[in-house]
Amino acid sequence: MREFLTFASEADILAVWGAGFLLFAGITLVMERRRAKRAKIDGVGWVPWTGLFLICAVVGGGLLAVAIPGMIRG
After folding, report:
1. Angle at which helices 10-36 and 49-73 pack, to 10 degrees?
2. Are 14 and 67 in contact (CB under 8 A)?
């Protein structure tokens, strides 16, 4: 992995960051669903999972949208 990142283009690095943000967005989506199905309705959490999901999904999608044309061109 280290060799890949050493010789990766800027588009490849942006794609890795975008995929990381989308992975984190998926984790936040799972955590929001878990909180919605809690047994104790008064046990409201303090983490804004929906907001984090939206931010990470938009940033990750934007990074991938910028990176993919550069990756296709080579």
Report:
1. 160
2. yes
Q: Which residue has the tokens 């983490």?
A: 47
For the chain, which residues make up each domain, given as ranges? 10-36+48-69
Question: What single DSSP character describes residue 39?
Answer: S
Residue 59 has a CB neighbour count (10 Å cut-off) of 17
The pLDDT tens digits of the residues spanning 38-65 come to 888 777 778 899 999 999 999 999 999 9
Q: Which helix (H) or strand (E) holds 46?
A: none
At 28, which amino acid appears? T
Q: Report whether 23 contacts 59 (CB < 8 A).
A: no
pLDDT (average), residues 2-28: 87
pTM of this structure? 0.83
